Amino acid sequence: MLDTLVSIGSTLKEIRETKGFHLQEVAEETSINFTILSRIETGKRLPTKNQVQSLASFYNYSEEELIKHLISDKIISEIQNEDLGIEGFNLAEKKIKLGSELFNSYKNLEKFELQSRRYIGNKAKLTDWIIDILKKETKGRNTFIDIFAGTSIVAKSAMEMYDVVILNDILYSNNITYEAFYSTSNWDSQKLVEIVNKYNSLKATSVRENYFSKNFGGKFYEKNISKIIGYIRQDIENKRKKDFINYREYAILLTSLIYTIDRLANTVGHFDAYIKKPIAAKPLNFKLIQTFDFNGAKIYQEDANILAKKVKGDIAYIDPPYNSRQYSRFYHIYENLIQWKKPKLYGVALKPEPENMSKYCTVKAKEAFKDLITNLDVKYLAVSYNNTYKSKSKSSANKIKFEEIVEILEKVGETKVFEQSHQFFNTGKTEFNNHKEFLFLTKKYDR
To answer: Does the predicted model carry a pTM greater than 0.85?
Structure first.
């Protein structure tokens, strides 16, 4: 039987998840029945050619490549029960296994988009709303400061409006992604494609146990996949030390590794815990990111309150953590993977010693926010905020209340409040009714 993980269905599912769409959205936009789409993605039925063409158009994906997958699956479906069909089956299987190596250039390689990574507080679905407000309500298009940039989804949209965009985040795993996506340093795409092809040909049986697999295998990642992840990470480090790759290439490979393993993690989207169930084996399918070179990107990795005293601009976008969940702990595996110091790990979640802990996740949050607002040398302040402070969960409850945000902002400038209904990402343990996202926009008083 054909493994559904490499069928047309699983390919379409992977494309959808990479693009960041929900199945219901695709059904509505393509007019393909939701149930039929679900059965296609789970391998319970094959799509028609018209359906493949419609999905290829919606996903902006190569129709030719998807049709090839469909034809291959049809052939396998026809011959798998035929005694004389074994040669055809083997040929189709070879084609599937070597599929990732059929791409011979970065241009033709399916790539990860910035928004496809899972991340707590990701503003991917709110960015257009935020940017539209800034366009209508602010003046000055020179410098945009994203001082808690996170995935940088808002900063990326700001690059279409501003000459200079400052990106800052204290996490190593976020800082490296900024270097990968936005740096203008030269890099050899063909070299990286060849490296990716080698990574995709790796077999777990030929890879030794390593730091990553010994600690995270069978827990956060399937055992064989964890061996390959650890091997790839060390190989990237070795290539950098030998100057086989430059720093931009190093950043692109590391960021691509994060994006590749994100959907393979045995978690609900972060690394505070892993799911206590057997982990299904899946192929690694290493892919590169889609870079977005921007001449005006200035990248920092500093405490936001310290950086605020060093930079100036037209507007500062502020989206700090508001509850007690420390991002450096939520994403400790990525932090570990990027730094690659191989520290001693503790507890069930296998976390290293605490590092880069934010004051905004503590009782000091209000004073830290006040200090930040006071010291930012900008014309406008745009502050994102959600109403999880009403949550019954102590860990989800905001450390700064709505009224406190308003009070602090109104002391430094004229403040407007915008709101938008929004489905909040959570682990499934906390219920949020009538959840809203707020944007406070303050025009600072002249000093």
So the answer is: no
